[in-house]
Task: inverse folding
């Protein structure tokens, strides 16, 4: 990494970004949704495309995962902005989110964090993998595995998540619902 690239990432070091992602996971695991919202940029976009079974094509050797995903103009599991994320939190907090009554018990594992300079000097593109374990009632346990690509901004108030793309590893969601934040 060149010196100028390193200078651009002063507030966006792998260590600071990793600590940000770990704190975010802890807030969600502890159901501290208001604190979690405080980590989000006002212009945040939280997007989870649908993954399709790839079509076997002998005319190309391109095996990019992007071909398996819906794009941002197509249907997605989530396509939330700040207002819809706040609405989802409000529903959970006031008991209107039936899928979280009683509340699930979560544990998030975030790993393989890679920080890459973004297009703007105060933004980094962050790649990470996650494992989410969810337990509900006495007999419901689910595990979701995937990867995320985030844009994280170094703002005067600290690091803020400005964009998240969540991709599940599989074309079928094995959970009875996706009522959580990944």
Result:
């Amino acid at each position: 990494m060149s010196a100028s690239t390193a200078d651009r990432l002063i507030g966006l070091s792998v260590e600071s970004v990793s600590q940000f992602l770990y704190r975010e996971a802890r807030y969600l695991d502890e159901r501290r949704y208001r604190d979690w919202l405080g980590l989000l940029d006002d212009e945040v976009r939280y997007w989870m495309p649908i993954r399709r079974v790839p079509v076997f094509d002998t005319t190309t050797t391109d095996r990019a995962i992007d071909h398996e995903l819906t794009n941002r103009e197509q249907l997605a599991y989530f396509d939330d902005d700040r207002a819809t994320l706040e609405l989802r939190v409000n529903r959970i907090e006031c008991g209107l989110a039936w899928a979280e009554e009683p509340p699930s018990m979560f544990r998030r594992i975030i790993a393989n964090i890679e920080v890459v300079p973004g297009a703007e000097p105060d933004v980094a593109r962050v790649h990470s993998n996650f494992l989410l374990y969810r337990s509900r009632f006495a007999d419901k346990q689910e595990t979701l595995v995937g990867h995320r690509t985030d844009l994280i901004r170094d703002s005067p108030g600290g690091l803020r998540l400005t964009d998240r793309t969540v991709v599940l590893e599989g074309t079928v969601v094995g959970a009875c619902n996706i009522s959580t934040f990944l």
